[in-house]
């Protein structure tokens, strides 16, 4: 089984001019920004399931999404897609929107980007979110790590704040996206320490030297076989096959050296990781 745990969905009309100008520095190689429900479904043809969410990042990277587009995608392709809500804690009614997304639209978790919304994980505005998610057995995926967005405060992308929140809310399942690059060592030690914290490798393969070091560090800290690291693409910023190939071929760059290798078992474990078994207490409620 292959599950893509990190897929973005939004309509073409929800892409603002800022998105076009800022993504030129997002990654090496070509980037096709379209990510409407039909495009997402076609891109996910080689995975068994995909966790999708929209983004409320209009002032940082120019995507002004909403939960309705996520719900429409899930309703159209229910056998493939599972939807998470998006939150922007700066909005006075963000908790009302979240309750609507979960209780009316039947979304199954939450995506939040502290760096993109300019709101620290330690901000008191997030307390109702944490309490609601913990009470309702809903996971929280967080963008951790840096970004190309000029107005996004980089300090909010560092993962050490996750440690504090995980301690305060021990029943809240939290997932650090992108291994918190470039602060992957902080990500790894927090995930190792906290039983309710996980991480994932989306949008990392196209920086192969960094990705190699991330996986080696994860092996050395003994988290690669503890249901701690999950696989994803960050579509449309990465495609499925290139993400698989990037993981499978990670050792090519150290051939002919005495550098350590990413174990085949590590690659297999990550690629076939199953968030539906671990991100909800008692497993995915369906």
TrEMBL record:
The keyword Hydrolase applies. The keyword Hydrolase applies. Coiled coil: none annotated. It comes from the Bacteria. SUPFAM superfamilies: Metallo-dependent hydrolases (SSF51556). Pfam families: Amidohydro_2 (PF04909). Keywords: Hydrolase, Lyase. GO terms for molecular function: carboxy-lyase activity; hydrolase activity. Residues 52-252 form the Amidohydrolase-related domain. Transmembrane segments: none annotated. InterPro entries: ACMSD, Amidohydro-rel, Metal_Hydrolase. This is Amidohydrolase. It comes from Vineibacter terrae.
């Amino acid at each position: 089984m292959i599950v893509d745990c990190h897929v973005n969905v939004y309509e073409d009309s929800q892409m603002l001019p800022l998105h076009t100008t800022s993504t030129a520095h997002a990654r090496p190689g070509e980037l096709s920004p379209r990510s409407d429900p039909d495009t997402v479904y076609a891109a996910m043809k080689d995975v068994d399931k995909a966790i999708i969410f929209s983004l409320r990042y209009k002032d940082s990277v120019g995507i002004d999404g909403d939960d309705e587009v996520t719900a429409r995608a899930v309703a159209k392709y229910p056998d493939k897609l599972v939807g998470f809500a998006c939150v922007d804690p700066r909005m006075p009614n963000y908790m009302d929107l979240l309750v609507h997304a979960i209780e009316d639209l039947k979304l199954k978790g939450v995506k939040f980007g502290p760096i993109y919304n300019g709101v620290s994980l330690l901000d008191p505005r997030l307390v109702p979110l944490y309490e609601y998610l913990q009470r309702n057995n809903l996971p929280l995926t967080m963008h951790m790590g840096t970004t190309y967005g000029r107005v996004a405060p980089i300090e909010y992308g560092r993962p050490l704040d996750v440690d504090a929140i995980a301690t305060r809310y021990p029943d809240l399942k939290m997932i650090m996206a992108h291994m918190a690059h470039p602060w992957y060592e902080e990500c790894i030690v927090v995930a190792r320490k906290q039983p309710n914290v996980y991480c994932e490798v989306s949008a990392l393969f196209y920086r192969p030297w960094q990705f190699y070091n991330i996986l080696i560090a994860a092996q050395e800290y003994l988290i690669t076989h503890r249901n701690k690291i999950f696989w994803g693409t960050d579509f449309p910023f990465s495609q499925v096959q290139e993400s698989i190939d990037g993981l499978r071929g990670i050792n090519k760059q150290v051939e002919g050296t005495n550098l350590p290798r990413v174990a085949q078992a590590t690659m297999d474990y990550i690629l076939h990781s199953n968030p539906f078994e671990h991100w909800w207490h008692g497993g995915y409620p369906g």
